[in-house]
Design brief:
The longest helix is centred in the middle third of the chain and has 20 residues, at 73-92. By secondary structure, the protein is mostly helical. A hairpin with a 7-residue loop joins strand 1 (56-57) and strand 2. The termini are far apart. The chain has helices spanning 2-17, 33-47, 73-92, 109-113, 121-124, and strands at residues 56-57, 65-66. The protein has five helices and two strands. The chain has a two-stranded antiparallel sheet.
Length: 132
């Protein structure tokens, strides 16, 4: 019973404390496991991808992902996009003047991606017949 209890506490401790993640650069360091999972699920849905789109495979165990790794350029692009949407929301949609840039989230990944990992501007802009 003691071994099960210790294992359970050890498994959950880093997530409860919010510092079990090794490479959070945009998200707050105290992000909880549940919040991070919900956010990553939202990103996957918005881009129509799975976790391996941004996260590299582990070098020692190829069937698992190395979530802390920065080996894939998509992860860097995702960080850039996260900062961009936070800035857009803070500067243009944060009407209540709160210091929290994500208080009102009018713009998110789904705004442009709509299930497409690589949206193109040409799909959003359809020229009039006289412009062709």
């Amino acid at each position: 019973i003691a071994a099960i209890l210790v294992t359970g506490v050890a498994f959950n401790y880093p997530y409860q404390q919010g510092h079990g993640y090794k490479n959070l650069q945009v998200l707050p360091k105290n992000t909880t496991h549940d919040s991070l999972k919900a956010l990553m699920d939202e990103y996957c849905d918005a881009l129509g991808v799975k976790c391996g789109f941004c996260h590299a495979q582990r070098k020692d165990y190829a069937s698992k992902l190395d979530f802390a790794s920065d080996d894939k350029m998509e992860k860097g692009a995702a960080r850039h996009m996260m900062k961009m949407t936070m800035e857009i929301n803070a500067n243009y949609f944060n009407w209540n003047g709160s210091a929290q840039p994500d208080t009102i989230r009018a713009v998110g990944c789904i705004t442009c991606h709509r299930g497409d990992p690589h949206p193109e501007f040409k799909e959003l802009y359809k020229p009039h017949k006289d412009e062709e």
